[in-house]
């Protein structure tokens, strides 16, 4: 992300807001940024008093987009026949989406249009011409595509993308811009009464699931399944836990009573008082029975009273 930004730096606060989508821990500032000074450094902007994460050195080996890797795989499979996808993106419209003849021609022209990589510095180019503006628009598509590819679940809220708007040269009207490229991105308005917009990378999903799930994504799904358990099943689980706890309490209570009885015998020094239930039989009996526990409590009270009368 920092390699795609202007000046090779991003605001620390903006990265912190998007840390969950990027798979970063809450203490990433200390665990990643400050721990590896050979790659990152924290700087304070005097004019804004904001902290920035700055890249120490640009590594060209890492400046490869996910879409470029996908094209490379197609090149290896199809060879020279894949020359027409040199600057194209994977497009997948919703079922029932009607594509007219003129739309298909415009889409073909846009797919074959060259563009600058999101990792390329464009400040040295003349961006005033209409051709340069078209290339910058396609570059913005590639930048958002790469940003989504860097996330854990290949999705992020539109509001979090807007934090990197200036740093990554993204259009001002992000929602309208993304809706113009519905074959690449999907914008969901579910949540917070339609005020929360989540942007998905279409090619990364099939039937609502990630095509290539990672370990962190699978762990989050399992946690979500536990949280979304039905109330009935959750009640049964609580009953099982309560039963185990009561069973353990009964067992510890019987062990404590046996210990007290032995202590009374040793302190008295007399003959052992006969009990209605053997210690060994009591310990080996069903410790989860409430009736047995109540009977043993009565026996224990009788024994203590008998001992007082004898003494």
Automatic annotation (TrEMBL):
It holds the Pfam family PORR. Residues 1-230 form the PORR domain. GO terms for molecular function: RNA binding. Residues 293-304 have a biased composition (Acidic residues). Residues 270-311 are annotated as: Disordered. InterPro entries: PORR_domain (IPR021099), PORR_fam (IPR045040). This is Putative plant organelle RNA recognition domain-containing protein. It comes from Medicago truncatula. The lineage of its organism: Eukaryota, Viridiplantae, Streptophyta, Embryophyta, Tracheophyta.
């Amino acid at each position: 992300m920092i390699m795609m930004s202007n000046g090779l730096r991003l605001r620390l606060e903006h990265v912190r807001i998007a840390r969950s989508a990027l798979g970063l821990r809450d203490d990433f500032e200390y665990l990643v940024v400050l721990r590896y000074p050979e790659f990152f450094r924290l700087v304070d902007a005097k004019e804004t008093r904001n902290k920035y994460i700055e890249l120490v050195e640009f590594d060209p080996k890492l400046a490869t987009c996910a879409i470029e890797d996908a094209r490379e795989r197609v090149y290896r499979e199809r060879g020279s026949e894949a020359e027409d996808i040199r600057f194209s993106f994977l497009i997948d419209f919703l079922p029932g989406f009607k594509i007219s003849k003129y739309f298909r021609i415009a889409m073909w022209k846009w797919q074959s249009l060259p563009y600058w990589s999101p990792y390329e510095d464009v400040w040295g180019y003349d961006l005033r011409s209409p051709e340069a503006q078209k290339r910058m628009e396609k570059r913005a598509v590639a930048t958002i595509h790469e940003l989504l590819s860097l996330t854990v679940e290949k999705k992020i809220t539109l509001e979090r993308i807007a934090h990197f708007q200036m740093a990554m040269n993204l259009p001002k009207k992000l929602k309208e811009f993304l809706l113009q490229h519905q074959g690449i991105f999907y914008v969901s308005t579910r949540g917070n009464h339609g005020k929360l917009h989540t942007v998905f990378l279409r090619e990364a999903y099939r039937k609502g699931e990630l095509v290539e799930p990672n370990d962190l994504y699978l762990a989050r799904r399992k946690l979500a399944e536990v949280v979304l358990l039905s109330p009935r099943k959750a009640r049964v689980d609580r009953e099982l836990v309560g039963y185990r706890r009561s069973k353990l309490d009964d067992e510890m209570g019987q062990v404590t009573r046996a210990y007290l009885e032995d202590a009374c015998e040793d302190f008295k020094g007399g003959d052992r008082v006969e009990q209605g239930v053997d210690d060994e039989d009591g310990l080996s009996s069903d410790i989860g029975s409430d009736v047995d526990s109540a009977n043993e409590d009565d026996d224990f009270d009788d024994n203590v009273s008998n001992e007082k009368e004898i003494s």
